[in-house]
Amino acid sequence: MISEGSTNGQASEGEVEQETPANTGKQASGNGSAKAATSTEELQNKLQEAEKKYLYLYSEFENFRRRNERERQDFLKFGHEGFLRDLLQVTDNFERALAHAKSLSSEKGTPLAQVVQGIEMIHHQLSEALKGQGVNQVPSVGQKFDPAVHEAVGEEEADSDPGTVVKEANKGYQLHGRLLRPARVMLAKKI
After folding, report:
1. Residue 146's CATH number
2. Is residue 13 situated within a structural domain?
3. Is pLDDT larger for residue 29 or for residue 90?
4. pLDDT confidence band for 1 (50 / 70 / 90)
5. Domains contained in the chain, number
6. What is the DSSP string of the chain?
7. pLDDT of residue 135
8. Is residue 96 part of a domain?
9. What does the pLDDT look like over 127-179, one tens digit per residue?
């Protein structure tokens, strides 16, 4: 704005010079393209950052999803591990009772022999149910001692190589390949 009191056409102190359309156009064309370029670069940088964040979050979510799926599968496979350990103790007692009953019953057709036969059938049914749940017996007798699946409880003299399993005190079991209970074994020692 040009003041009436100024003679040379300059604005006095406190007054602002009014921009003419000619002035504005020159500044806008120079500043406008620089601002537009800067604005475009900023937007591209922000877009790239947003894409990086999106990819990072997407990959984190996929890892989370996979981890949850793996944990769910493990829970389905191994969630009943404690119950199966308790059931293995019942199986051990069944086997002990069966071995004792067989030692008492040598004659076929006697009532005791029929009880033994019934116990054998129940034991077989229990073993099949355990196999159906993914429980498998760890091979022991005649194998080399493996601390990953065997627990040594003693040694006895035998004709086998030292360190070979000669007797099982308790059978060992695995659940879907994971050790459920180690086999408690006796090892051969030199005579």
Report:
1. 2.30.22.10
2. no
3. 90
4. very low
5. 3
6. ---TT-SSSPPPTT--PPPPHHHHHHHHHHHHHHHHHHHHHHHHHHHHHHHHHHHHHHHHHHHHHHHHHHHHHHHHHHTTHHHHHHHHHHHHHHHHHHHHHHHH--STTSHHHHHHHHHHHHHHHHHHHHHHTTEEEEP-TTSBP-TTTEEEEEEEE-SSPTTBEEEEEE-EEEETTEEEEPEEEEEEE--
7. 94
8. yes
9. 999 999 999 999 999 899 999 999 999 998 888 888 899 999 999 999 998 99
The total of other beta-carbon atoms located within 10 Å of residue 179's CB is: 13
Q: Who's near 138: CB < 8 A, 6+ residues apart?
A: 149, 150, 171, 172, 173, 174, 179, 182, 183
C-beta separation of 188 from 162 below 8 A: yes
* pLDDT over 60 (residue 47): yes
| Tens digit of each residue's pLDDT (9 = 90 or more) over 14-24 | 444 454 544 44
Amino acid 55: pLDDT: 94
Cβ neighbours of 185 (radius 10 Å) = 26
Same domain, 143 and 175: yes
Task: Find the largest Cα–Cα distance for the chain.
Answer: 140
Unique residue bearing structure tokens 């602002």: 16
CB 120 within 8 A of CB 100: no
Asked if residue 5 is part of any domain, the answer here is: no
